[in-house]
Amino acid sequence: MEHLHPKQAYEILQSSPNTLLIDCRTEVEFFYVGHPVDAINIEWNTAPDFEQNPHFADEVLRMAGRKDRPIILICRSGKRSVDAGLELEKHGFTNVANVLEGFEGDLDAEHHRGNLGGWRKHGLPWRQV
């Protein structure tokens, strides 16, 4: 699995429109916290118990159409997406990348996200419902 800085991921998405950007956060995070423009939400963990989605790889394959399609995964801080990527590789996906820092980045000294990196902090296109 490749690990990409948010700006690298954005550049790849711009130059390779066949690449899927999958946001693996919960649906609530995706819609209410915000998400990268054109990202597809497929939950790695599901509410309310935050259990791992047993259908994650199947749902990704349904969206991707094939296991060699380039896929970039993003989550809140870049940690869940690593686990999701490893699961995809375990299921035979061959072109998987993870966005370092995720959408919101790590916690700062005051336990706030969004100040130490992430897709949003780097000024990349995003939207919120």
Describe this structure in words.
This protein has 129 residues and is an alpha/beta fold. 29% of the residues lie in helices and 19% in strands. It is built from 4 helices and 9 strands. It has helices at residues 6-15, 27-33, 56-64, 80-90, and strands at 2-4, 20-23, 35-36, 40-41, 45-46, 51-52, 71-74, 96-99, 126-127. Strands 1-8-7-2-4 form a 5-stranded parallel sheet. The chain has a two-stranded antiparallel sheet with strand order 3-9. The mean pLDDT is 95.
| Biggest sheet: strand arrangement | 1-8-7-2-4
Strand-and-helix sequence, N→C?
EHEHEEEEHEHEE
Helix-strand makeup class: alpha/beta
As a percent range, the share of helical residues equals 25-40%
What are the salient characteristics of this protein?
single chain, 129 residues, alpha/beta, five-stranded parallel β-sheet, two-stranded antiparallel ribbon, 4 helices, globular
Concise account of the structure shown:
With 129 residues, this protein is an alpha/beta fold.
Any chance you could write out the topology, listing elements then pairs?
Blueprint: E1 2-4, H1 6-15, E2 20-23, H2 27-33, E3 35-36, E4 40-41, E5 45-46, E6 51-52, H3 56-64, E7 71-74, H4 80-90, E8 96-99, E9 126-127
Parallel strand pairs: 1-8, 2-4, 2-7, 7-8
Antiparallel strand pairs: 3-9, 5-6
